[in-house]
Amino acid sequence: MFPSMLTLSLVLFVFSTNLAMAVKKETRPPQTLSRGWGNDITWTQTYEEGLYNAKKSNKPLMVIHHLEECQYCQGLKKAFSDSNEAQELAIEKFIMLNIMHETTDKNLAPDGQYVPRILFVDPSLTVRADITGRYSNRLYTYEPNDLPLLIDNMKKALHLLQTEL
């Protein structure tokens, strides 16, 4: 009886060890500054760094205010990250910042603190309050189906950069 118990214990031990090795631990990708908005984009860490880089590189700064648990933010994030055109513009022509907290600059909340909210700042460090979305009660918000308007506004920020500065 002892040898059979020993054999059974050994079989159970080997089986459980193999089972433990077969079960892979869930690995999460490391949190990056992109927060899902585009992993190929170079993101700035802070608003101040974004302003510095915008001035230094003579590129507009695009500031995306969002919250992780906001369903509207999640929808816009997916549309933005899935759009080749938006990603290319962001990579090549903009200094990019996405933040999940309010800044101390009240110019970044000209009509209130809501999310999602996207504003553009030109290299002269002027917030472009004239580049708005389609809603009159939340001028700087966009929905996933507003992505073509957001892309047009990105192009508008670039055009104003060339004509005004």
TrEMBL record:
One of its GO terms (cellular component) is endoplasmic reticulum. Keywords: Signal. Pfam families: Thioredoxin_7. InterPro entries: AGR/TXD, Thioredoxin-like_sf. Residues 1-22 form the signal peptide. Transmembrane segments: none annotated. One of its GO terms (molecular function) is dystroglycan binding. Belongs to the AGR family. This is Anterior gradient protein 3. It comes from Pelobates cultripes (Western spadefoot toad).
